[in-house]
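The instructor's notes for this session suggest beginning with a concrete chain rather than abstract definitions. Hand out the sequence below and ask the class to guess, before any prediction is shown, which regions might be ordered.
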Amino acid sequence: MGDERGVARDPDHARGYRKLIAWQKSHQLATTIYSATRAFPREDFWAQQQICRAAFSVPSNIVEGYTRRSRREYLHFLNIARASLAEVEYQLFFMQEVGLLDAATRDRIDRLRAEVGITLYRLVRSLEGPPASNTQLREPDAEYLAGGEFNAYQDEINGAPFEPLTQ
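After discussion, reveal the predicted structure:
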């Protein structure tokens, strides 16, 4: 069964989030951070737990918001995801400063974090448009960017600072 645009709907709506570039990138960020911090010394286990929790929170909040029934709730959870992403940004900086991460690892992870920030920002912007004629949440086309279209944002990702959401 498809929607009015002819896009087939996932019969299990909770798994439709996997099509979101923001979720895909944030999941990649969480797994990358987990892998990069597994070898932290025992005395720095707290730091590994903290950054992994913040990184895990980003895709988790995207999923939770996606399954909500209203645009307002969805945006609420996306903003929580953005706040968690900001925590990750600081934690990466801190971990490099204290010698837990080398500069190359931090830079590699931070580039991915910036990509997540851009895609999450664009997802939020796409949802902030005028509400649909009914109150039920629809999946805007802007949520799903093909790989080629995503590459158009590379200059923005590589050179621009993370854009804060203005209310």
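Then share the key points. The chain has a mean pLDDT of 78. The chain is about 60% helix and 0% strand.
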